[in-house]
Amino acid sequence: MNKVILASRNEGKIREIGEILSKFGMVAVSRDDYGIDKFEVEETGETFEENSYIKAKAILDIAGVPTIADDSGLEVDCIGGRPGVYSARFAGPGCTPYDNNVKLLGLMKHIPEEERTARFVSVITMLFPDGRKLVARGECKGRIAEEMRGEGGFGYDPLFIPEGFSKTFGEMTADEKNSVSHRGRSLARLEEMLGE
């Protein structure tokens, strides 16, 4: 089995990506399990594509085997696409997801419902030692609620209502969310690309 190192420490992501890779005779290994525990990389990119590449390349340079990294976040149209690549640290250094949600709601206080459009974006980059590169992008369009709703999910899930639904990701079951999520779509695209 060919090993593929994942930059992520998120067990859910590792499992999801592992299920896809196994169809192609590859096994997913977390960077911790591979022994890359002291790993800090500065995400200096201005796009999700750049940041996922930076992370994947840093691990490829250390390990010399195929690597996968992802970057994701929320883009809100009425505030110029922010928080974008700064989604995790939108409210400043050391902020919590709750802080980020409060900041976003504050910025959108007087924005009418029809102008509250947004999208979650997920980009997965897979790099091979021979120079090949696969980049899979997934998007989920929706809108921002006027208040936090639901206890499920993480990040901006209590605020994001996907197109075609009246409830937030935070109010959905994991299966409901995964059936329409940006990460589900980028994973499906990665599977297509590996098949090609």
UniProtKB/TrEMBL annotation:
One GO BP: purine nucleoside triphosphate catabolic process
Reactions accelerated catalytically: dITP + H2O = dIMP + diphosphate + H(+); ITP + H2O = IMP + diphosphate + H(+); XTP + H2O = XMP + diphosphate + H(+)
Cofactor detail note: Binds 1 Mg(2+) ion per subunit.
Active site: D71
Residues reported in the UniProt entry to bind substrate: S8, R9, N10, E11, G12, K13, S72, F154, G155, Y156, D157, K177, H182, R183
Domain of life: Bacteria
Binding positions (Mg(2+)): E42, D71
Gene Ontology MF: a single term: nucleotide binding
Cofactor requirements of the protein: Mg(2+)
Top EC class for this record: hydrolase
E.C. number: 3.6.1.66
One Gene Ontology term, aspect cellular component: cytosol
CDD domains: HAM1
Pfam families per UniProt: Ham1p_like
Keywords: Hydrolase, Magnesium, Metal-binding, Nucleotide metabolism, Nucleotide-binding
Gene3D superfamilies for the chain: 3.90.950.10
Family: Belongs to the HAM1 NTPase family.
HAMAP family xref list: Non_canon_purine_NTPase (MF_01405)
Subunit text: Homodimer.
Protein name: dITP/XTP pyrophosphatase
Organism: Baileyella intestinalis
Source taxonomy: Bacteria, Bacillati, Bacillota, Clostridia, Peptostreptococcales
